[in-house]
Automatic annotation (TrEMBL):
Record-linked Pfam families: A2M, A2M_BRD, MG2, MG3, MG4
Keywords tagged on the record: Glycoprotein, Immunity, Signal, Thioester bond
Known function: Binds covalently through a thioester bond to the pathogen surface resulting in pathogen clearance.
Domain Alpha-2-macroglobulin bait region: 375-507
GO biological process, one term: immune system process
UniProt GO MF annotations: endopeptidase inhibitor activity
Record domain Alpha-2-macroglobulin: where: 582-673
Protein name as it appears in the record: TEP1-F
Protein species of origin: Anopheles funestus
Origin: domain of life: Eukaryota
Length: 795
C-alpha cells in the first residue's frame, strides 16, 4: 500500500491519497497519483507498507515544486530615445513549455527609473500564451533604466529592463582581444584592436589604450592610428605579480573615428595567468575503494582549451608510496593507477614542476566498500527522434535482471524489467519518443552481492516538441530590396518574428529571446539539488528497497567518462529614407501544410541585421530557432551618413558622409547635398543656393570621407538629402534623413498633473489652463504635450 500525505506549516492536513498495488515477482509496476491542481507549500511524504504478511515499511520526504508557470519577455530593441515606441511580447509557459491552460490573463506593468507605474495592463489577455503590446515613450520622458514586469496572482513571473537615453547608433564596433594569452612571465600585454563597420568594411581612426593594474592605478597609456586593425604592446612599468592562478587587469580603449570624431569606449577585463596551463584531476569515481585499484588522469590544458603536450613534472601520492616523473601525452594527459591499501583513508595527489614553480594538489577520500560490482551504460547510436536508442549495459557480474527508467520533466515516462540470462552485456533498445524531448535521463539498476548498483545517461535532443524552423533566401541583399522568409512548424501555430540592427548589441543583447533562455527556463522548472553521491536524488527520484539490500554510494565506473551525448526592385532614382533600427515585428500563423512563406522589404540602412523567430502551439508548446540569422544590406556603391540626432539653430556644423566603392576600379564620385525647403544655409556659398556639389576620388574597397559645412535656419525638423553618382551616372545612391533643430537656449520643462476618476462609464469635459508663461523664450520653441495614462490605478 502506498500513501502520500502532506500538511501545511501550521499543521493543517492538505493531502492524503492511498493506493493498493499488487507487484508480482520479477515485475515492474508504475503507479500514478493525480495531484490536486492547487497545493499549498508544506511538508509532504510517501509511505510504503507491505500487506498480506509481507513485512515492509519505508518512508521518504517529498519536495513540492510549486512553480508551475513562468515567462519570457521579448523587446524589439535594448535602448530607446525619448519619443520612440517600445514594442514587447510577454510569453507565459507551463512546465512543459506550453501555454498554461489555467492562466488566461496576466498583469503587466512598465515602470520608469523612479519606479513610477507609467503603463499598466491589469488584465492582459494571452493568445497562445502571448501578450503583445507597445508603449509610446513621451519626448520628455525620464532617462535611465525602465522595467517591464509580468505578474500572475500577484507573483512576479518575469521582468526585463530597457534603457531610455539620447544616443547615436554607431555604424561600427571596436573589439579588443589579447594577441597572445597573457602570462606573468611576459610582464606585458599584447593586444589586437579591430575596428570595422557592421557591414564588414574597416574603419580609420585614432585609438587610445590605457592599462590599469593593482588598485585600479593607470600603469600604461599608448595612442596610435588604426585602419581596421592594429596591435599594441603594453610593457608594465614595474614587475607585476600574479598572486593566485590568475588575475584580471583593466584595459580602457577609446577609439575616435577619423572624419566624424564619433567615439567608442570599451572597458575590457583581461586575464593574466600565473602559468601557461591548468590541470584537472579526472577520477573514475568521486571516491576510491580501499584495497582496490583507483584510476585517475591529470588533464593538462592551455588556457585556450587545447591539450598541453610534453609537460614534465613530479607526481606524488605519499599515502600509497607513489612517486614518479610524468610527461603529458598528445592529449595532455598523465594517466595514473593508484593502489590504496585496506587501511588507506585518504589520498592527496600532488604534481609539481621545477622550472616554473607550478604546483597542483587534490584530495580523494575513501568510500565504505559495499561491493566490487559495477554497472555501465553506454550509448551506441545517434540521438534521433522516433528512432531506436541503442545502449549497451555492462556489468562485471553476471546479471539475472536489471531495471531501466526513463525520466523527463520530473516524470518517469517509461520503465522496464529485463532478463539478460546471466550475461555480462546486454544491448538495450529503446524508442526515442516525443515524451523525452527536450531532455531525458536513462537509468539502469541491478542488484549484485546484495547491493543495488546503477548507472545513468543524459539524452539531449537539442530540439523541442514544436520543431520550428526559419530560413531566408539570401544573406546579402541591397538596401530596400525584398527577402523571402520560409517557416515550417506545427499547422496553426503562432509565430513571432523580429529583426534589429546589429549595432544595437553595443548597448545590450538581453532584449531578445534565445535558445539558451528557453533551456534556462526549462531547467528552472525542474531544478533539483545536485548530490554527487546520490544519483537518484540528483534525478529527482527516491529509491527504497529491502533492508538486506544496500545502496552503492559511488556512481559506477562509467561516470569517469562524463556524459556521452552524441521583389520590389530598388530604383536608382529613389532616396533611401527607411533607416529603422528594428523592424519585422510581425506575427503570422503556420498554414495547414505546416509551412508559411512571407516576403518583406528590408530597410534602407547598410548594416548587418539579426533575425529571430519563435513559435507557440497550444498542444506542442514553444519552438525557437537555435541562433539568430545574420544578413547584410550592402550594394556595389553607396554612401553612409554620420549625422547627429540634433543640432542648434544657427550653429555651424559639419555633416559627415563616407563613400564606399566595391568595384575593382577607382572612380570619381559627384556628391550633392540638397537644401530642402531652404531649411539650411551652405557656409561659404550664396544664400539662395538649393544644392552644393563636390567631387572626390573613391578607390576600390576603401571608405572615403566627405563633408559639408551648413547652418540650420528653422526650428523643428531639417531634411538632409544627399545623392552621389559614379560611372557617368550608371551607379547611383541617395539618402534622406531628418535632424532635429533645437533652440539656441537650454530646454526647460514644466509639468502639471490632473487626476480623473469615475465610478461608472461617463463622458465629461474639463478645462485646463495652458497659459504657461516662459520669460525670454526663443520664438517658436514653445511646445505643449498632453499625455493620458489610463488604468494607472487598479480599482
Amino acid at each position: 500500500m502506498l500513501r502520500i500525505e502532506g500538511h501545511t506549516e501550521d499543521g493543517q492536513n492538505v493531502l492524503n491519497i492511498t493506493k493498493s498495488v499488487d507487484v508480482r515477482k520479477q515485475m515492474n509496476r508504475v503507479i500514478n497519483f493525480n495531484m490536486p491542481k492547487y497545493l499549498s507549500t508544506g511538508y509532504y511524504k510517501i509511505t510504503i507498507d507491505g500487506q498480506r504478511g509481507f513485512s515492509f515499511h519505508k518512508e521518504a520526504d517529498l519536495v513540492y515544486l510549486s512553480k508551475t508557470v513562468s515567462g519570457l519577455i521579448q523587446i524589439d530593441k535594448p535602448v530607446f530615445k525619448p519619443g520612440d515606441t517600445v514594442q514587447f511580447r510577454v510569453i507565459v509557459l507551463d512546465t512543459e513549455l506550453k501555454p498554461p491552460s489555467r492562466v488566461k490573463t496576466v498583469q503587466v506593468m512598465i515602470r520608469d527609473p523612479q519606479n513610477n507605474v507609467v503603463r499598466q495592463w491589469s488584465s492582459a489577455r494571452l493568445y497562445a500564451g502571448v501578450f503583445e503590446n507597445n508603449l509610446q515613450i513621451a519626448p520628455t520622458s525620464m532617462l535611465g533604466m525602465w522595467n517591464i514586469s509580468v505578474l500572475e496572482d500577484g507573483e512576479v513571473l518575469v521582468s526585463k529592463t530597457f534603457e531610455v537615453k539620447k544616443y547615436v547608433l554607431y555604424s561600427f564596433d571596436v573589439e579588443v582581444v589579447p594577441t597572445v594569452i597573457p602570462l606573468e612571465k611576459h610582464q606585458s600585454l599584447n593586444l589586437t584592436i579591430a575596428a570595422n563597420y557592421h557591414f564588414g568594411k574597416p574603419v580609420k581612426g585614432h585609438v587610445k589604450v590605457e592599462l590599469y593594474l593593482e588598485d585600479d592605478k593607470r600603469d600604461q597609456v599608448k595612442e596610435f592610428d588604426v585602419y581596421g586593425m592594429g596591435q599594441v604592446k603594453l610593457q608594465y612599468a614595474d614587475f607585476f605579480t600574479v598572486h593566485q592562478d590568475w588575475e584580471d587587469v583593466r584595459v580602457k580603449t577609446t577609439f575616435v573615428e577619423q572624419y566624424t570624431s564619433r567615439t567608442v569606449v570599451k572597458e575590457s577585463q583581461i586575464t593574466v595567468y600565473k602559468h601557461p596551463y591548468r590541470v584537472e584531476l579526472i577520477k573514475e569515481s568521486p571516491q576510491f575503494r580501499p584495497g582496490k585499484p583507483f584510476k585517475c588522469t591529470l588533464q593538462f590544458r592551455y588556457h585556450d582549451g587545447t591539450p598541453a603536450k610534453g609537460v614534465t613534472g613530479k607526481v606524488e601520492v605519499m599515502e600509497v608510496g607513489y612517486e614518479t616523473t610524468g610527461t603529458t601525452d598528445d592529449k595532455g594527459r598523465i594517466l595514473l593507477e593508484l593502489s590504496p591499501s585496506d587501511s588507506t583513508d585518504t589520498m592527496v595527489i600532488y604534481f609539481s614542476t621545477e622550472d616554473d614553480g607550478f604546483f597542483f594538489n587534490e584530495q580523494v577520500d575513501k568510500v565504505e566498500v559495499l561491493t566490487d560490482a559495477y554497472l555501465k551504460l553506454e550509448l551506441k547510436s545517434p540521438i534521433k527522434l522516433n528512432r531506436k536508442l541503442r545502449l549497451m549495459v555492462t556489468c562485471n557480474e553476471r546479471m539475472t535482471f536489471f531495471m531501466y527508467y526513463i525520466v523527463s520533466k520530473g516524470n518517469i515516462i517509461d520503465s522496464g524489467f529485463m532478463r539478460p540470462n546471466r550475461q555480462n552485456k546486454y544491448l538495450l533498445e529503446l524508442d526515442a519518443t516525443e515524451k523525452m524531448i527536450p531532455k531525458a535521463k536513462i537509468i539502469v539498476a541491478t542488484v549484485a552481492k546484495q547491493t543495488l548498483i546503477n548507472d545513468f545517461m543524459d539524452i539531449d535532443f537539442e530540439e523541442l516538441h514544436n520543431n520550428f524552423e526559419l530560413s531566408i533566401d539570401k544573406r546579402n541583399v541591397k538596401p530596400g530590396q525584398q527577402i523571402e522568409l520560409r517557416m515550417s512548424g506545427r499547422p496553426g501555430a503562432y509565430v513571432g518574428l523580429a529583426a534589429y540592427d546589429k549595432s544595437l548589441l553595443y548597448y545590450n543583447a538581453n532584449h531578445d529571446i534565445f535558445w539558451e533562455d528557453v533551456m534556462q527556463l526549462f531547467d528552472g522548472f525542474h531544478a533539483i539539488e545536485e548530490n554527487e553521491f546520490d544519483m537518484f536524488h540528483s534525478t529527482g527520484l527516491l529509491v527504497r528497497t529491502l533492508d538486506v539490500i544496500k545502496f552503492q554510494g559511488v556512481p559506477s565506473k562509467s561516470a569517469r567518462a562524463g556524459l556521452q551525448i552524441y521583389n520590389p526592385i530598388h530604383q536608382s532614382n529613389q532616396y533611401r529614407t527607411n533607416f529603422l533600427e528594428s523592424w519585422l515585428w510581425k506575427n503570422v500563423t503556420i498554414s495547414r501544410s505546416g509551412t508559411r512563406t512571407i516576403y518583406e522589404v528590408v530597410p534602407d540602412s547598410t548594416t548587418t541585421w539579426y533575425l529571430t523567430g519563435f513559435s507557440i502551439d497550444p498542444v506542442y508548446g514553444l519552438g525557437i530557432i537555435k541562433k539568430p540569422f545574420q544578413f547584410t544590406t550592402i550594394q556595389p556603391f553607396y554612401i553612409v551618413d554620420s549625422l547627429p540626432n540634433s543640432i542648434k539653430r544657427g550653429e555651424v556644423v559639419e555633416l559627415h558622409f563616407t563613400l564606399f566603392n566595391n568595384f575593382h576600379t577607382e572612380y570619381i564620385a559627384e556628391v550633392t547635398l540638397h537644401n530642402v525647403f531652404h531649411q539650411m544655409e551652405f557656409i561659404g556659398r550664396p544664400m539662395e543656393d538649393l544644392s552644393y556639389t563636390k567631387s572626390v576620388s573613391v578607390p576600390s574597397r576603401v571608405g572615403v570621407p566627405i563633408s559639408f559645412l551648413v547652418k540650420a535656419r528653422k526650428l523643428g525638423e531639417m531634411a538632409v538629402r544627399v545623392n552621389t553618382t559614379i560611372k557617368a551616372g550608371k551607379e547611383f545612391d541617395a539618402l534622406e534623413k531628418v535632424i532635429r533643430v533645437t533652440p539656441e537656449s537650454l530646454l526647460q520643462h514644466k509639468i502639471d498633473s490632473w487626476f480623473f476618476c469615475f465610478d461608472i462609464y461617463a463622458n465629461d469635459t474639463f478645462f485646463i489652463n495652458t497659459d504657461f508663461k516662459w520669460p525670454k523664450s526663443d520664438e517658436g520653441s514653445e511646445k505643449i504635450e498632453l499625455r493620458l495614462n489610463r488604468e494607472y490605478h487598479k480599482m
